Structure formats: structure tokens, C-alpha cells
Records
---
Amino acid sequence: MSISDAVILIPGFLGFGQIGHFSYFANRVGAALRGCLLGLSDADIPVIPVKTAPTKPLADRQLTLLHILKEIDRRYSSLRRLHLVGHSTGGVDAYLLTGQSPLQRGTSWEALDPDRVRHKISTVTTIASPHAGTCLALSPLARFFRHPLFEIHKSPSLAIALWQLARSLEVDEMALGALAGALVDTGETAAYALDVFWARTLVDDLQPRHLVKVQNQTNKELKDTQLRCVVTMAGRRTRNYRRRNRKIGLREPDAFFRTMYSYTAGSGFDEAYDDPERITQAINQIEMAISAGKLIGNANSELRRITPELNDGLVNSARQLVNPTSEEELLAVVVGDHIDVMGYYPRWVTAWQGSSAQEQKQLRSGILHSGSGFGDDQFFALFQQIAKSIVSQVQCRGDEK
């Protein structure tokens, strides 16, 4: 069967494919989106997770992504349309690929993409993407990436945050599996860890002052490409939450999430560079989307007030839109943290012994634990919505070349 359409899953800041048993996109997101697409369309639409340049500057990530798309285009000779789904910085990478000029100075799309593979990009869907940067890039954590030893000595609060992270990882079963796998493949893991350690340029690229400037200078060239953004925001807490001991109670954010939320909130602005009107427009758009029924969240989750400081633990919610005046652009508002939407959240699984199903147990996963109550219902509702958006465009475009 010939393949006309393919969905490409683009990872964010860390950009890995898989470490040990821990995959960024391939397992839960890939399977969920593939299943949703099969239920909505008779067309065979493969879902392909890719690995980008983990912590390289945006210009390098853009070239890497373009190279990957050209390889996929060569693999599927009948391919007519590409559908890019990017999480976090991966969404920024996807959108900037539709601009009039590449980020690398002194070159052109004609030179980088003579076969015009970019022009096959039919849809771009971004999830929790810092299109206008993130205030986390202005925080002590960002300064730690620039000068690790100095900042740890200078900021006791940062040392406490790293200890909270270690505690969070200790009870995260998926993360422990990833760590075990990483210890087996020490060569690749060491190279990856070194990349993360030297992630200074990308951290700078994610500052509001940089990305707002990039967005202001980026004119979308691919006019027929559909852009849809999913905005994520953490809930305050969740009532009637089923805990590991099976008791129903209140679920509050843990210490590490509270620290990350505070770092990301900042003042909500990069004072010298931000346009307050843009942020206000984004807030209004989020509020209208919620009123219009575009909210995906646990019914027992308490919503936070929508302000410039509101975030998902890593990215300010009002910074996750490219054009905050466009109602059509905002696909959904999700109550959850930055990691929840990748499929890593506490969930109940059935334990098997031989051929017999035993009682359910809760798998604690996600590193960030925001208390938003995000679960399977919200996860599958999100990717059903994304699949509908992609399929509608496939059906609209039909067999056009």
C-alpha cells in the first residue's frame, strides 16, 4: 500500500529517542496517536518518532529536523503530506520550519532543501511549546546550566531543588528503568549526558527575549500549512484522587513541582523585551477556549487563575501560542504538567502472574507531579483531538499534489 501521509513526532529540549526502557515519544504517544488515526481514517498513516539534536541551538536543531524529513521522504516515495507533532521545543522546531528563511545565516531554503520537502508539511501541531520562550530560562536553574559549580555554591535553593529532583526520580518507576538501561549502554549515555551538561546555547535560545525576537522576524512562508497549538497548564490540586493505598483523598503538587512552578512563573515577563499586550491576548484566548469547551482535564482538578505566571512546570501557558489573536490556532487547553502529555503520569495498571490477571497497582511515573489529576482519560482525549485535526486536513486536501 502506498503511503500518502505520515505523522512525525518531534521531541523537545532533551531530544532523545530512547534511554533504557524510557522513550520520549515512541511507546505511549506513538501507540495512542496511531490507534486514534486508525479509528478515524481508512488511510494508512504511519506515526514516526524521531531523534533530534538533544541540546543544540535552534538553528542546528532545525537543520537536523530538515535532514530527518528528507530521509523519511526518500523512504516513502509516494509521500505527499507530512504532519509534524512537536512537544515542547520540538513544536518550536516544527513551526520555524515553515518560515520564509532558515535560522542559519548565510543560506537559503533553496540551498538546504532543493527537493522542496518542506512544502509537503501539511500540518504542524505543537504541545506545550515555548513559542514566546519560557521564564524558566531566566531562573537560577538556567544559570546552573551555564555555570554549574558556581551556581550550586551560590544558590542553596538550587541545591535543594536538585535534591528534590533526586527524590522524585527515586520513586519514579519509569525513570529507574531508564537509569538501569543507561548504565548498560554507558558510551551513548555518557555522550548524551555531556550534551545536556553543555546545553547553554539552547537555554539562551529559549529565553523570551530571544524567541520573541525570532517569532517577530519569522514570516510563515508555507501558507497552506495548518498550525494548531495545545496549551498546557497545571491545576492547583485534585480532589477525590485515588492514591496508591487505594484511599480517596486530596492530591497536591509535590515539593519538586512546586519549586519548578515557582522558577517558571517568575514575573511572567522578560521585562526589557516582552510585549504585555501579546501576553494579555494569549490569556484572553485561553479563557475563551475554556469557555468554548476546549478544556481537557480531570473534573476534580481545581484550576489556577490564568495569569502570565501560570505554567505547566517548565513553560508559561501564555507563551505557548504563535498568534494569540487566532481562535482557530488553539486546539485544546490541557490541565496537566509538561511531562503528563507525553504519557508519563501516575496510572493504574493490571499486574499479571502467568496467565492470570491480578489486582491493579498504581505505576508512579512522570518526574513532575503537579497534582493536576491528569490520567488515561485526559491522555487519550488529547491525542484523539490531535488525530481528528490531522485527519480533517488529510480529508480536506484529498489527493491534491
---
Amino acid sequence: MTQCDRVLAALERAGERGITQVDFLGPTIDGGKPITRVAARVKDLKDAGHSIVVDGERNSCVVYKLAAAATPVAASPPPGPPEWWPTQQRAASGAYGVFD
């Protein structure tokens, strides 16, 4: 089991309590060898697509938690001319209301 696997498993088990660097110093929360660079492993997990957030501080260390799955928000279309403009002006204006 890699350090990333261990950190991810600890995040899943910890739930709302979260984990800190202190949890991976001797004795560790999972009984394995100490992990001295938990922040680096969290970054690796984020880079791999896991949603992890920092939520406060405990024992002078940041608390990491798995973020709840969020529904992606659709991107808004670019602003266009107002609907009350005459059709010819809207067509000539392009997306930003600038006349040619």
C-alpha cells in the first residue's frame, strides 16, 4: 500500500473529523510507518482527481477532509446585447454590444 493509498483510506475513514499530519506520526492512525509529508501526499491525491479540502486546524496542523461530491455548475454564456434592442442592432453588435 502506497502512502497515497494510506492517506486516502484514512480520509475515507475519518469522515467529518478529517486527518492531520500528526495522525501520521508515530504511532500512526493506520499502524503503518510514519508519513512525514502528508501535505505532499494530499497534493498528489488532488492531482489524481480527489476532492480534498482544508477545514480548520487541530494540534497546530491543518485538517484535511474529503469534500462532498458537488454537482458541476454549467458555464454561463457570454453576455450579449439586451433583448429590447432592435434585431438589426443585436445582430450587428456581436456578443458584447459593440457596433462595427
---
Amino acid sequence: METLETYLDRKHRELELLNGCLLRLSPLKRPASVAEVIERKFHVAAALKAEHALHDWAHTETDWAHAGRPRAGPFRFSYDYQRADLRVSGPSFYEPGCAAHDTLYTSSGMGAISALLLASVHLMSAANIMVLPGTYGETLELIEGYARHLRLIPLKGSRDEMMLPAAYPSVLLLDSCTSIAAFEAVLGCTRAEFELVVFDTTCFSNGSGRIRRVVNWARRRRLPIVLVRSHTKLDSLGVEYGRLGSAVFIPGARPEWLTQLAAETRNAVRLLGNAALPAHFPPYVGTRAYRALTNKRVAAILRNSRRAARIFGATLPCSFDQLHVAHGLYVTLSSKRTLDEQQARQIAADMSRDLSKSGLPLRHAGSFGFDFAATEWFHDAISDRYAVRIAVPDLPTALWDEVAHAVSRWWSAHEGRETSGGMHQTPATAS
């Protein structure tokens, strides 16, 4: 368990890290409450972004002033018109061990995977793309609507499926949102013959052991692998510093093939106008303090998610089911009524409004990894039902338990007005 005092000490260290990146340091004292933590972190992050804009005023979209290489903390940038040729030097967001052939930064995580999959047509005019249960819905929408050279093959998640011979080259899409059983089945696959592995790591901590396991699995089988990621989520200490994504290319048996894929992906980014903005690189990345604080944040989220599983399992037992998603960053509550997207969105907004009025750190926000709990609608692709997602924060243990019990009471009361309620829960399993 983490006490309020220990939590406030940890958050003070996060504030010190952010504040230390300012050219003109702000007066800083230890926060006295969770509400103060949330407010001050966003204020310091805003000051960092404003200071960057003032300092690099001459580095416009066309970089007409050529006043030297722009920078953001340890990151250095070079580019010409519209950042179409953007080059970035600086630390990796990932821990050592993910040795990259090339790293390409984009304006978002979806921007990275979109450019990669669209560019792959130049190397694979027709291919199967194997997807596992729980794969991110927008990625599937992208493949079906725009990457027509990739034939979508939904898998149930068994190891044997992945070892069957195929008439076309095969791409494996591995997502941190997939089920833990399917994720482990991939790592137990010893005879896989994939042209390429695409691994969306967004919902895992950038230091996750699961990322290392997948990279090592691909290396042992000499499979080329590309790590795609949104850095807007877990990599910015909960302040959504800016929209940023990346594709990290790690070679297999044919490094020249991956070099060509990286070049085609870079060209796709240029043509789509999808290059990253230098101002969106968090300047506090790359230090030991950043790595340690990020790991502690995610560990606290996972602990709280496991506690939510126990609380909701005991207090909302009707139609209880466990969706064993690999990342474990959120839980979902589902009604016995059939909800559409708008109804699920409204329930999330109503619950957030009511509980935040009572002083609890719960907000209606469509993301995760904050210092507050965030509610939003959620579409469960497996059951094809809409539900309410609660993204678990790294709050002090006792306070999070209070929030979880309050959610349970609210849900039971409001479900009781319509019909008896149910809950689907996504337990914390990631590391």
C-alpha cells in the first residue's frame, strides 16, 4: 500500500523533474493534496511548453531563420520545409535492450502505424495480417478501410493458428490491448514464419518486461519487428505533454528489407504531413529520475487496478466477467441494458460529474495514465457491446479504494433505477 505522504513525496519528485527543465525555475514546494498535485503538474507542463515556444520562436514550419538546431531537453532536431525531412537525435523512450535500426517519430501513435501499414504495400503487394482478440479498434478500422493490400485474419489466440502455413506473406499485429492468453500464446510460438511483426506497445510502460520479451522472441526467430507507440499516454508523467508517436525498426534475418521498409515509412510520413512537432517532445525524458518515476507510476496504476478487480468483483457480482487484457490499465463496467456509444458516453459523463462534485479525483476524459481516474465510453469488440471504461490512476491506495467503492455505489444505484447491473473487469496484469 502507498500512503498519502509517500504519494505526495513521489509527486514532489515528479514536479522537481518537470520544474528542473525550465530555464527560469518556478518556486516549488511539496504539494499538500492530490488536487494540488494534478493542478501544479499541468501548470508546470504548460510553462515548459510556453518557454519552448518563446525560446525557439525562429524555428517555424519552414525554418526560414536557420538560427541553429532546435532542441527540447536532450532531443536535437534538424529539418527543412514542413519537417518533411525531420531528423531527431536523443535518448530512446524505451529501456536499453531495444536496439533499433532506425527510429521514426510521428505526430501520434496512429500516425506511426498508419504510415507503416500504408508503406508496406511497396514491399508486400498482398499479405495476410494476423490480429488477436482485443486489438485496438481504430487499427482494425484502418486496415479494413485503407490498407487493402493486407487481408485481415482474425485469430482466436491459439498458438497452433500462428504456425499454420499460409499462401501469402504474413504479418503479425501484436497489440498491448490483446488478451493475456493470446499474448502468451504468441511468445510460446516456436515455428512462426512472419514476414514482419508489428507490436503496438502503447499501453505498456516503456520499461515493461513484456516489451523486452517480445523483442527477444522476435530476435531468436530472426523476425523483423517494428515497435509502434503513442508517447502521449504513459510517457509524459500524466500531463499529456504533446501529441507524439514513433515507429522503432529492429532488424531480423533481412536487415536490408527492414531498411527499405523504414525508408518507405518515412516517405509516407512526408506525404501524409504526419511528421512530429519538436515542441511535443517531453524535455524530461532520458534521465534516471524520469525512468524511475515512470516505473513507479505504472506500478502504482497496476496495483490499484488489481484492487479495483477485487472491489468490483465483491460489490458488483452480477454478470461479472474478467476480460484478461494484457496491459491491465483500466476496468470496464457494462450494463445489462444494450447501450449505444452515446448512452455509454453519457453514463461516463454523469458518473464523473456526480463523484467529482463530492471531491473525488474522477474526470470524464478519453485517455489513461493521468493522476486522476478517467471515465469514457468503451466498445468491447469481443462481445460487440458498449460499456464504460475507468482508466485507473496512481492515487494513494486508501483514496483509490474510496473512489472504487464510490463508483460501485453509484453504479449499483443507477443500474437499479433501470434494471439489475453487471460488470466486466479488466484486471491488472502488465509489468
